[in-house]
Design a protein that fits this description.
binds adenosine-5'-diphosphate; Rossmann fold; six-stranded parallel sheet; nine-stranded mixed sheet; globular; 18 strands; alpha/beta; 18% strand
Amino acid sequence: MRILFVTSEIHPLIKTGGLADVSGSLPAALKALGADVRILVPGYPGVLRRLGNAEEIARLPEGRLLYSTMPDSGVPVMAIDHPPFFWREGNPYLDDRGSDWWDNPARFGLLSRTAAHLASSDSPIDWNPDIVHCNDWQSGLAPAFMKFRGSAAKTVMTIHNIAFQGNFSPEWVEKVGLPAESYTMHGAEFHGHFSFLKAGLFYSDAITTVSPSYAREIQTSAMGCGMEGLLFSRSRDVRGILNGIDLEEWNPAADRHLPAHYDASSLDAKLEVKRELQRSMGLDQEDHAPLFGVVSRLTYQKGLDLVAECAQGLFDQGAQLVVLGSGDHEFERIFLQLSESHPGRCSARIGFDEGLSHRIMAGADIFLMPSRFEPCGLNQMYGMHYGTPPVVRTTGGLADSVSDGATGFSFGAANSHELYLAANRALSAYRQGDSFRKIQRNGMESDFGWGKSAREYLDLYESLTGR
Ligand code: ADP
């Protein structure tokens, strides 16, 4: 089974969120199951630097195709080296001011077109995929190009977050090289826009998303972001497969970012990480102060306004809060202000910091993730795996991965009162000691690895190709 896995970000080469983690770990899990998988990714500067020894394997109509292998997993990776589109430092989607790059449709049109080219009979390389697995809107045009070119390979479109749709002005349809006839309601048109995601959902052979609950939710008007009708009409082709986590990258017993290591049988050593976290973040050095942690994109989706609203109530009970994130300036300001007004109790770091995210996951006592919606979410799984039980809202992958009272704490309505009540249940358990230890161990002993889910993807590929 040959699988071309198309993605706009991949850990450890380039990362803005969970898509990168999945792109780094799912192909590795597929390879471990015997699949012949290759990754296709844009050649951003960070990607080409980290791949170092990439070799040119083909000239493309635009740019070159470079070949290398992923640093840890050894999965083959192909990067599109086209400097006018991809040689830009920083965030892959945004310019320095935080606005979308004006030519994103051209940039990710090229990613999609190249995937289709590699799956066609005039591919410049002698490796033809049976499956082209697309991820989010950035590769959403690949199934459309493949349908119009008559490609034999089958396509899977995975939705990691349906709120990101890649909707652009219709003038881009022909600029990216799609025939005008693709721009209809039964195609890439979406409320007067040219939609990369809609194209992917319409033209792909199968649709997956990253948890069973989210697969149901996005078929409703409340959570489908306008795509619910199409998804509902293709219900039989829609599957929810829960993401796994990379157990080598995320392992409290060997994590290179931690000052001390522990497992379920040596949880006392977790305290050393907490002490170091408190010290480095300027929090009061109090072993017994319950420490809440947040690592997140700072956006409305993640419900962090609810955290800000109930923070005072938590501080009043002697708790501390550490926040790492970046995103909307308003949220950044709120958390910076909170840490200024509560020195020693609250500390916020604005930015992207891989090492600190691991230290918060390990050093905090309780992880907060009150998302308004959450396709899968990885941080709650990292939290459980690190003995840091999460407080989550019952939605999407949070509902599918956290068991209330057994591995974490859940609440329903998206308001700060409900979050506060759930956080208080976590605090009572923490104070009781034994019951908290049990919840920590339950999480640490749960299996969040890729094994089962990678098998489900393989089953899907097999059902599409008839192999
Ligand atoms: P999403 O993909 O919606 O952002 P997920 O929970 O699925 O949310 O994945 C987020 C990933 O990004 C996790 O690996 C998390 O640790 C990481 N992350 C988010 N914000 C930061 C940050 N500011 N610094 C470091 N890592 C971050």
